[in-house]
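User: Fold both of these, please.

Assistant: Here is the first one.
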Amino acid sequence: MDTLSNEGVDMEASFWQQKWEVGDIGFHQSEANPFLVEHFEKLNVAKGGRVFLPLCGKTRDLAWLLNCGHRVVGAELSELAINELFNDLGVKPKISRVGELTRYCAKDIDIFVGDIFDVSAEVLGSVDAVYDRAALVAMPENMRHQYTSHLMKITDVARQLLICYEYNQQLMDGPPFSVGEAEVKHHYASAYQLNSVKSREITGGLKGKVAAIERIWLLERF
């Protein structure tokens, strides 16, 4: 696994903390992602199965999964985001410390607040699937190998739905960053069978600035 300086990780953390503090959360969607709704069944998760959402924020996808009868576990850097998440759900969580992390839990939901690289397999517990809508594309290029390696390690290479964006990075910098087919294969082809399930052009462009494609991948363990 690649290693990064603590300074680099801290800079990345402060970037996202500031986004939440000032309400600059254009990446947050007010409804469940249409790709999730349309394609989640491809993961073959039984009712009551446990789904991991890395860098979950206060995503409505989490509520959709709960309403479908699944258990959810998330990791998120911003405590503000998770407080808003539980407020939106109308649920009062139990809060405890787990090493460097803060755990927010309620019926069928566990969220670990802190650095995702502090989430171990033992802390996370067994998961049946991963849904990555906003994590890989939020990572700068020099962190993506560390992230994907860590994710596979802590989830025991659980099957995964992965949403990525593809656009000309010279016209606009991320996040979300452009992560195309070649890079998805670079990170995951050694452990997963990869299937590009569906793609769509983003109406009005990404952030209203640049033409982009949103693509959903199904990653199934060999």
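And the second sequence with its predicted structure:
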Amino acid sequence: MNAFDLSGRCALVTGANTGIGQAIAEAMARAGAFVICAGRRSSAETVAAITAAGGKASEVIVDFSDPKAGAALFDAQEIDILVNNAGIIRREESVEFSEEDWDAVMDINAKAVFFTCQAFARQVFARGGTGKIVNIASLLSFQGGIRVPSYTASKHAVAGLTKILANEWTAKGITVNAIAPGYIATNNTQALREDPERSRAILDRIPAGRWGKSEDIAETAVFLAAPASDYISGAVLNVDGGWMAR
């Protein structure tokens, strides 16, 4: 048996149109899963890359600013793996931070994560099956950050939700884990990477000596979705090149 084989499994990846979500979707497909790519923008590019490589995928448009919008995804098809990757960030000094920006981030990054997990679990339990949930947390699930109060709160919430849902659902057949990415070379970090001083300060703290790649997160997600991780639940796994060890 290949403990990393996802053949015959259906995986739903949110925010699969770009960056980490796109890499996760492609990695799940390489491992044999049929991948549903969900997001508020088209994931046609991701689906095309998967099918060109011989995998199977589809896309669906879902706006997770409505925290319960993801629930409908579980009405049409049985899903075995849920990856909650969709998220946003808003930056402003905490003394000036608006309620609008607070709610926008919390709705997508925390509230939608919970209610999408809930809908997934209800489907799995109703069919008497098993499932895997992989939430995308952050280094700011552990640290405070600067000028991102709602993002920090939401990612602390993701870590907490991962643990409580693992407590309630692992014995019923669903493992729940999270990945906390470090500094990954994506569009979101382009400005940091192009700032020589900031980039050097970041790299100086990373024992691995490099920015992470989306594939580093993607392959970890496959591990947490595969039989290889069946005895892991409630974990928040840092994939950060050693950043948190400093």
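The first helix runs from residue 19 to 30.
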